[in-house]
Amino acid sequence: MPAAHVSDPPPFAFGTNWQSFVRTALDDTRIATAAEALQRLLRLDQLHGRSFLDVGCGSGLSSLAALTLGAQRVVAFDSDPNSVAASAALRSRAGIPEDRWRILQGSVLDGNFLAALERTDVVYAWGVLHHTGAMWQAVDHTVRLVKPGGLLALAIYNNVERRIGGSAHWWRIKRRYNRSSQPLQRLMEYAYVLRFGIGQLVTGRNPVAAIRRYDGAGRGMDFWHDVRDWLGGFPYEYATAGDVFNYVHATHGLDLVYLNTHDGHGCNECTFGCPGR
How many domains does the chain have? Predict the structure, then answer.
C-alpha cells in the first residue's frame, strides 16, 4: 500500500461524524440490527458473564449492542475525543451506569495506556485498526488484550488489486478528500452517491429505496454517515483475509473461529479464539 508521507492530511474527524450519527440517525431498530451482527461475528447468542472491550468505539453502537446481549462489563476507548463524547452521549441516552460501561480516551498504539487495561473475554475492533497508520502494530497490541480462552473480533478493509478502482486508487481518493475544502468534500460525496445510484439502476434496483433501507451490510449503519466515513477514512490500510489470518495465527497462535470475506473494498471479518493458558 502507498507509504505514508509528511504531506499526508491529518486523520479524518471520525468523531464528528459519529456524533451526528448518534444525534440524527441511531434508533432502536439500528441497535437491534447491530446486536444481531455481533451475534453472527462472535458465534454467540448472548454475552452473559463476559467482559467486552471495544477498541475504537466510535459512536458506541457496538458497546451498546454488547450490553444488549448481556455483557457483564464493557470498557470502550477511542483516540478521538469526539468519538468518546458520542459514546458517552449514547450511554446517557440508554441509561447505562458508568461502572458497567466505561468510556476512555486513548490510542491502541499507546503501550502505556493499554498496560492499564485488564485482559478481556471479548476484544472487538471492527473497522478500526486500518485507520491507525500502523495497522500490524495495532493488531499486535489488540491481540495482547484478549484473555486466555477469550475471543478476538477483527474487521479490516480488503485489499483489492486493480489499477483503477483498487485499494491504492482509493487511498489516493481518500487523501484528496481530506486535503479538500468542505465544499469540495460535499461534491465528492455527491459524486459517490451518483455512482452508487447508477450502480443500483444498472442492476434493476431503486436507488432511493436502497438508500432508505441501507443498514451497512446488516450492522445498523446509516447511508450518509457511511459515505462520509468511507470517503474520509484516512489513514487507510488494507489486507486480504488470508493476510490477516496468517499474521494472527502464525504470530500470535490464535485459532480462527469465524471468517466472512469480502470481494470488494469492504471489511473482511475474522473472529479468533485465544487458547487457554
Answer: 2
